[in-house]
Amino acid sequence: MRLRNITGCREMIADSPYVADEERLPDAPGTWGERFGNDHPIHIEIGMGKGQFLHALAKMHPEINFIGIEKYSAVLLRAVQRMEEEPLGNLLFLRMDAENITSVFAPGEVDRIYLNFSDPWPKDRHAKRRLPSRQFLGRYDRILKPEGFLEFKTDNRTLFDFAVEELAEAGWTADFITYDLHADPELVQGNVMTEYETKFSAMGTPICKYRIRRDPASEQVKANRSR
Ligand code: SAM
User: Fold this and answer.
1) Ligand 1 centre from 63 Cα, in Å?
2) Is CB count within 10 Å lower at the N or C end of the chain?
3) Mean of the pLDDT values across residues 54-76?
4) Domain count, the chain
5) pLDDT band at 5 (very low <50, low <70, confident <90, very high)
6) pTM as predicted
């Protein structure tokens, strides 16, 4: 994602009622229901970008609370502007690095996780920064409900192959894997497009997607939880 240096965007983000910030949320774990004023399920998107996907989903599903996580204020600003144009009571944003995700959600507080078109970090030595890496799956394991699941979409076949290989290592298992989502009449039903998906599918690039959950028998998952 190209970042423009937008003057004052950090301040605009800090002042926005739609944005929480990990530094201002020392007591966040376990309190998201209170913040939304209900006990609806919580679905999060990590690496939300400008928020097209989550804003559309939140509009379609008022019975679910959505939280979009994005590292950069300059990117998040567009999602905030979209909320100012069309406010939704069931959508909030968190400006933070997802590496610290276990410090803002309590164990089992999250019902579903979305990763969309995550940064590929192509160098091997950066593999653990990839959002579908085993290191991140370990973090997701801590905050996701036992029956919760994670969906990942990408145009990047190399990143997707890596993500699929990480599953067994991390103790997760796939409900489905597709290498061409838009050509699958069943899986594409109800698909909500992200900004990157709109761009890449218009260019004819196939979109890969999986849905994964923890394998209850996995030793890795048990070890992760006992740490
Ligand atoms: N999900 C959007 C889409 O599909 O259109 C945006 C995709 S963009 C390629 C990836 C986004 O993830 C960027 O905005 C980047 O800043 C964000 N990101 C990458 N690593 C992150 C991390 N560790 N924590 C939070 N956000 C992250």
Assistant:
1) 25
2) C
3) 97
4) 1
5) low
6) 0.94
